[in-house]
Amino acid sequence: MELVAPSPEYYPSFRRALQEWDGAHQDGAGIRDAAALQDRAGFERWVDQLLAEETTPASPDHVTCTYRWMVQGDEYLGSIALRHELNDFLRSYGGHVGYGVRPSARGRGLASAALAEVVRAAAERGLPEVMLTCDATNPASRRVIEHAGGRYERSVVDPDGHTLLHHWIRTGAHAHPDVTEVDIVGGPEPLTVGLQDHDPAWSARYEEHRARIAHALDGQHVTIEHIGSTSVPGLAAKPIVDVAVAVPDVTDEAAYLTPLLAAGYELRVREPGHRLVRTPERDAHVHVYEHGAAELDDYLLLRDQLRRDDTDRQRYEDTKRALMERSWDDTNAYADAKTAVITDIRSRARAAVVRIRPVRSTDAAAWQALYAGYRAFYRLPEDTEAVRTTWQWVSTGAHGLTGLVAEDADGHLLGFADLRRFARPSSATTGLYLDDLFTAPDARGRGVATALLHEAAATAAAEGASVVRWITAEDNATARAVYDRVAAATPWVTYDMRPSAD
Questions:
Q1: Nearest Cα to 147, choosing from 111, 118, 120, 121?
Q2: Which of 53, 78, 116, 212 could form a disulfide with 101 if both were Cys (CB 3.0 to 4.6 A apart)?
Q3: What pLDDT, on the 0 to 100 scale, is given for residue 274?
Q4: Please, which residues have CB within 8 angstroms of residue 409's CB and are 6 or more apart in sequence?
Q5: What does the DSSP 8-state code read for residue 380?
Q6: Which residues, other chains included, contact 102 with Cβ-Cβ below 8 Å and sequence gap of 6+?
């Protein structure tokens, strides 16, 4: 497969593809009047329009866009579009990239290959990240996006009532080379502010800064979080509100730093991957990183652990109070002195994290190792081919299967669940059947199975399914104790009949 610019030479093949689509919307194709494509003259005018949109929007409601076709020889296989910017509609419902593969060409990895090329093209255009949306009921498209590095951000409901999942993919592009050294504007400063008991007003001050930052960076893809000790109820802190802001490109200071300075903040630190601005009163620090920065994850991991764990919260406060009994000529030295206790708290918090996500192609080895353990648990014979076949089904969506995995904060797989769609004629609805559920032995007792079951219920809700159903052995007391907390046992008895020609 190769990506090419739209061309009239693909007219015969494109007509055949239109018949396969049978009137359904083809994402990323730029078709606005399918009837006009039935004759060659109309098709050629449309191709000219697509090529012109590279530099001229089709209308005031559109943006400039690069269209590419997936082809093999003279056969048209699908389309992919890279929109060069986001307007209000695209920011909510469309994204930078749309793609569609003709039905007869699906299952061959075409969308993944095309998306990888378009992400590279976006980087060449200087886009640090691109946004994609997919319908919550389209697990195949979601797998394509996540395989390309897509990070789920949020869900929205479009005007037709469909739930769309927002994902962002980093392209690796930067506006400028990042700085290589640490520049502390004004030099080191002594620590002069002491600890105060937690003040609920700190949360209100954060909201004021959040609104101020959001207004300054209006129209940009940013996330804003309250971090640091003032974000933890019950924790004593210096009365300085810390705010974390994630931006697309930390080197593009004209996009975010200039507006923040215009909003009244002052630059304090410029260092690789990070900028810090603060108020002239020095009562608020705004830390700027790129989306996906490990430092942001660490801030949020510590914050959430301190919010939920009384022992860690008290230990952290005791450490800070002991350090505050000393004098500090450099505030950064005080911060460094807290590193050991912060690292320890984060380590235990990281061990407790359980995240649920759809299976990815890169999970192959870890997933198959878990599935082999699942078969051993149920005393099934060792069968490498059965493990490989099941992985192929789950990872490609064959037989209506969807795979979920649980992972820790470092991305190690802790367990999995396999869901399969089925029709329910008695209620004229569909349901999800939980074929397999397994937690790695060393991860048991951490709520992995419960988290997987809750995600299965959320998947069913997003797809409009009426039930999640599964079976288990009557004497599996450990599993049933978990199941009884989230579901109702039924009075139905399961039967198995062997195939027979008689």
A1: 111
A2: 78
A3: 98
A4: 297, 301, 349, 350, 351, 353, 355
A5: P
A6: 17, 20, 21, 76, 77, 78
Q: What is the pTM of this model?
A: 0.77
Q: Smallest Cα–Cα separation from 289: which of 149, 186, 124, 170?
A: 170
Residues 6+ apart with CB under 8 A from 399: 393, 420
CA distances from 215 to 172, 208, 253, 287 (A): 27, 11, 17, 17
* Pair of tokens at residue 147: 């395989």
* Count of all residues that appear for the chain in the document: 502
Q: What is the pLDDT of residues 126-173, one digit of tens each?
A: 999 999 999 887 877 888 898 898 988 888 888 888 888 899 999 999
Average pLDDT, the chain: 93
CA distance 221 to 209: 17
Pairing relationship of beta strands 468-469 and 429-439 according to DSSP bridges: parallel
CA distance 258 to 254: 5
Q: Which amino acid is at 215?
A: H
Give the Cα-Cα-Cα angle 27, 151, 399 (nearest 5 degrees). Answer: 60
Return the SS3 of 256. Answer: helix
Read off the tokens for 414: 């802790």
Element of type H or E holding 341: helix 339-352
CA angle 224, 225, 230 (to 5 degrees): 140
Distance CA 149, CA 143 (A): 10
CB 222 within 8 A of CB 205: no
Contacts 24+ apart (CB under 8 A), 255-258: 255/175, 255/220, 256/217, 256/220, 256/222, 256/288, 257/288
How many angstroms separate the Cα of 255 from the Cα of each of 217, 250, 278? 8, 9, 17
C-alpha dihedral sign at 202, 207, 211, 214: positive
Residue that has been written with the tokens 């699942």 in this structure: 374
Query: Whose CA is closest to 269, among 242, 291, 297?
Result: 242
Chain-centroid distance of CA 264 in Å reads 33
Alpha-carbon distance of 272 to 252, in angstroms, equals 13
Is the pLDDT at 462 greater than 80? The verdict is: no
Per-residue pLDDT of 316-347, as tens digits, reads 999 999 998 888 988 888 988 999 999 999 98
Helix (H) or strand (E) holding 151: strand 151-157
Which pairs from 498-502 meet CB under 8 Å and 24+ separation? Answer: none
What's the CA gap between 409 and 285, in Å, rounded? 27
How many C-beta atoms surround the C-beta of residue 250 within 10 A?
Answer: 27
Beta strands 163-170 and 129-135 are antiparallel
Round to whole Å and give the CA distance between 159 and 439.
39
- Report the DSSP beta bridge partners of residue 131: 168
Whole-angstrom distance, CA of residue 347 vs CA of residue 299? 13
Return the amino acid letter for 456: A
Decide: 85 and 70 in contact? Cβ < 8 Å.
Answer: no
Q: What is the DSSP string of 442-493?
A: GGTTSSHHHHHHHHHHHHHHHHT-S-EE----TT-HHHHHHHHHHS---S--
